[in-house]
User: What shape does this take?
Amino acid sequence: MSQRLPLWVRRSIGRASDISTVQKIIRERQIHTICEEGRCPNRAECYAQKTATFLLMGPVCTRACGFCQVTSGKGRALDPEEPAKVAQSVVLLGLDYVVLTSVARDDLPDQGAGWFAQTMEAIRTARPGTQIEVLTPDFRGVVSCIQTVVAAQPACYNHNIETVERLQRTVRRGATYANTLKVLRTVKDLDPAIPTKSGLMLGHGETVPEIRATLEDLRQVDCDRLTLGQYLQPSQEHLSVQKYWTPQEFDELGEMARGMGFKDVRSGPLVRSSYHAGQMGAVP
Assistant: This one.
């Protein structure tokens, strides 16, 4: 089902100066950010606020989710210099808050968990004051992988549930609803002091009761922070948008989430997983 793009989700390219500075630094080092790979509509705003989301372990994902425009295929050999290159970029950009995410690497023995830890160590060595949030894959629910990342003490552990339970198989292909809840629960079991975060992309055909049920499940595993945003179809080969939720509806869903006990909520058409990530930690 094809729908006309509403005005409230028309993308702004942002300030060219903010974007070009980051593009130059990451291209020179042959590293990646999900901001660029996904052409996030908020990237200039985030760059100006000294935040960025680095995409670790290459631009090729071993999974093929129906919503995601990151290339799917066989995982590439890891660049042994990537942690240092990311750390150098953090220093050059003067980033106060960094989000580290990655493609899924089911081909690696630890699914890339150790790579998150190595990169965090490199950043802290190069710029000790930078806070680091992680946005990890589900690691297929393997506790030892989650434990590796938790032991590196991120400022926040983010893992997105993406959609309601009924639509998981269609949207996420390779991930499961149960594993996402397991990841978030395991983080709290290992270290209750680390804030956890998750997010949904709306527009796949979910209903308000289904959204409420998903948020209840997230609260059951003590998820602290939440993002709600609009799914935008990257290409004709990806899942089509079933509904464009209005700004008012996002406001109402945000209020519902706050009433359920989430400590911080970002809800709006252009909200993404890392939107205002550093600011979320500052909320009492």
Remarks:
- The beta strands are 32-33, 51-56, 60-61, 71-72, 97-102, 131-135, 156-158, 196-202, 225-230, 264-267.
- The chain has one domain: 13-280.
- The chain is about 40% helix and 15% strand.
- The radius of gyration is 18 Å.
